[in-house]
Design goal:
Two copies of one chain form a homodimer. By secondary structure, chain A is mostly helical. Chain A is built from nine helices and no strands. Chain A folds into two domains: 51 residues, Arc Repressor Mutant, subunit A (Orthogonal Bundle); 124 residues, Tetracycline Repressor, domain 2, CATH 1.10.357.10. The relative contact order of chain A is 0.10. Chain A binds a DNA duplex (30 and 30 nucleotides) through α3.
Amino acid sequence: MSHMGYGCLMAVDREHVLRSAAALLTRRATATMDEVAKAAGISRATLHRQFAGRDALVRALEELGIQECEAALDAARLDDDTAREAVRRLVREFESAAGLLGFLYTENQLFEGEEQNAGWARIDARIAALFRRGQQSGEFRIDLTPAWLTEALYGLFASGAWAVSEGRVAAKDFQYMIVELLLGGALRREES
Amino acid sequence: MSHMGYGCLMAVDREHVLRSAAALLTRRATATMDEVAKAAGISRATLHRQFAGRDALVRALEELGIQECEAALDAARLDDDTAREAVRRLVREFESAAGLLGFLYTENQLFEGEEQNAGWARIDARIAALFRRGQQSGEFRIDLTPAWLTEALYGLFASGAWAVSEGRVAAKDFQYMIVELLLGGALRREES
DNA sequence: CCCGCGTGAGACATGTATGTCTCATATGGG
DNA sequence: CCCATATGAGACATACATGTCTCACGCGGG
């Protein structure tokens, strides 16, 4: 009876394992597969049955991160309103994914050799397009390239998440600090 | 004749090894001790004679990074001029150290357990003091805390260095992009 | 010329994370 | 009630970086 594929009793749900792994690896990027398994409340054997290895797990987390980003981008409705309002929504929607993103961001530097997942290029393109729209509408400065503004946003997310986890910035100020610094730099001077 | 301590033939010079290691680890944070040795043009044995282990090497690199930062801070003369000019000088002086800083920044997250080197706190304090001076002089906004501005500067350095190494930003624009984005956010609106 | 010192090369042991396997168990469905 | 299936526990081999050691070589000084 292999026709069911999913349903049935299906003990561990992949989703929960991924969430636990994301939460743990966000804090300790070097956590062991054993620790990941414990964090998810399953045995290392079962973890390994679902993800062929640490590599596969990280790739799956990457997929998850990409999905969350694209969902956040959808929810932020980047084409509506003024560009700066869209940026605010973007930061708001991204906050919950900031931790995972930070992990993947540094983890990607270790994949150096291989080509990176095409999903990131799509996400980069959507965010860069938002900044470009803002430039064309006259809201944003044109001397800072959309590509750089995109990278800078990532960097601010990373340091923001880090600062919060270190207690140097209050969690409730996370969005405000990032948006205000980024927009203040991206908006033209004669801005409200 | 142990009274010389340094001079003599003293084959490998510690400085050169550190520089090579910094250059390599900046690109590939997971490089092997063997690769580090090869990059420095010495054998693993000799490398190990100078630095008791990978840990010791990273600590030494941390010391080097701290020294470079403090030298950059001195050279930037943070107390002179307007705060924004001081920030420009700061970014300029920091550029050459950006790669090493990026490596140490992510590496520090792995030390999570142990207390971090007091040097970083000193550096943080000096930079935060600059932002605070700018706030008190009325140049900078007061709704973004000095601590956050400091962290944000680190984040922008990291993403800037990364973007340059990935070819998304031209190396010659590195300083400009960072300074303009940061200052645009830190300066009050009615700014030149 | 000989000796000492630092180096390079490599063998060897170690620790650790990982991948793989087996087996007992429990749970749920037929 | 019995069986299938997935899980948990643990043993086991492997790969790899690391730490340690020995030994031969070369260079410079006495």
